[in-house]
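From the pipeline queue, job 12 of 40. The input is one protein chain; the requested action is below.

Action: predict structure.
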Amino acid sequence: MSVLRRWAASLAIVLLLGAGALVLFVPSLERLRWALVVAGALLLALSFALNAGSVGRALGQRSTRYGAGVGVMVLLALGVVVLANAVSMRHSTRWDLTENKRHSLSPQTIKVLQTLKMPVEAIAFFRSDTPGKRPAEDLFKQYASYSGGKFTSRMEDPDRAPGLARRYGVESYGTVVLERGGKGETKSEKILDAEEEKLTNGLVKVTRDGKRVVYVVKGHGEADIAGTDRPGFSQAKEQMEKANYEVKELTLARDPTIPDDAAMLMIPGPRTDLFPQELEAVDSYIGRGGKVFFMAAPFQAEGLRTYLAKYGFDIGDDLVVEMNPIGRLFGVGPEVPVVNQYDSHPITRDMGGVMTLFPLTRSVSPAATLPKGVQVRTLAHSSPQSWGETDKAALQRGEAKPDPQDKKGPLPVAAVATIEIQADAKTGDRGGAKPGVPGGDGAEERKPAKARLVVVGTASLASNQFIGAQGNRDFFLNIVSWLAEEEDLISVRAKDATQIPIMLTSSQSQAVLWLPVVVLPGAVVASGIVAVVRRRRSR
């Protein structure tokens, strides 16, 4: 009995600690865990019963009462922590305080997740010690929270599941496979890095059947769509392909026919005028409800001004010049207006507060009188400090200044048109009818198709030199998505997750060095000396 009186409490504590260890390290042994808890509780009660007299005397001591108070405070603190964790498990909230919100999902990703029509599972192949596993798990949780249950994920160790890794062709750790379910055939997309931009592009590819084709006109001095030099469009082509578009070149001068599978046509700043048969092919495509993206650079291919006038665009014979100090922050001159004024439109809906650069641009505005069935509206404007310079000789001398005949800012530099395609009077067919849609007698009356046109006054908006500047990439891809009638992809894309170093001046570096190393410790030492001196004097 004396042995139990002496060692029962200690053994009870050991059993309870063992139960806690099982919770942390071997949660599957639930029965053993509860057995240890029950045994520990019984031993603890037996110890109190056998040592009742000693416990009573101890409780009467002052130190015991103080210790009991401390114990109660510790238990209350632990209770608050447990309650906070329980609440956070059911109602989680995140605050992203980084400068560019790189730990939060972009609006485009959220929009794609909220419009998922079929379940998608992400299978991530990570070992337990693979770098990036925890960030990937956190990213998947964010995706799942916006998907309404359509997006799920699971972690797989390729070393423990080699058959599964072989099935999906996984060859490296950190690979993510997106697989869609639901009705129809399954489809999967393999991603080598668990990054938001790649995951969202993979979601777009895996949830859409086929690719939309973008045809890019060439043959009149346009910048090469695959060119890697500064005026080239290789990065724009890469961004479109990431968004599940197929980009093809089209030489209308050789064959003035636009293929039926064209989701949109892009004319990226021709230096010489298009031939009449080429323009007729574009007219025919627009008459079928086609979608065209014009880049009308200033002082070149002036025939494009006349052509676009019949669709309600007034293309200025000018160069928009802007004496804005903001441009100096980007290292650009007055010939590159900084645009942050946008009109209400699906293309610019999420562009508020985002600046875009329009290098070497002309003004683009709606015509005073619009053709029947055509609606034209502006998209973006330059600042009030800008004007439309029309003196080419002064521009060549670098002496541009606002003259009385020049238009004053803000000036529109991009515009969009929707054109209703009327039914053919003889056949009753509508120009924008899609192949395979029933027609004829008894067919449901179809609404007139609408062609879409977007005109910007620059050929360099999406060039390799400028597509990475501020909001240029988003503005360009929003135009492409709107023309291709994929409005759910119109938004601000995922942000660059790279770390941005803090650049300090020499004086700031000295302040960072002296403040924590000398000033703060010195203040603490000085305060201590003052306190000691005052205490001695008070005695």
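Job complete. The first helix runs from residue 2 to 25.
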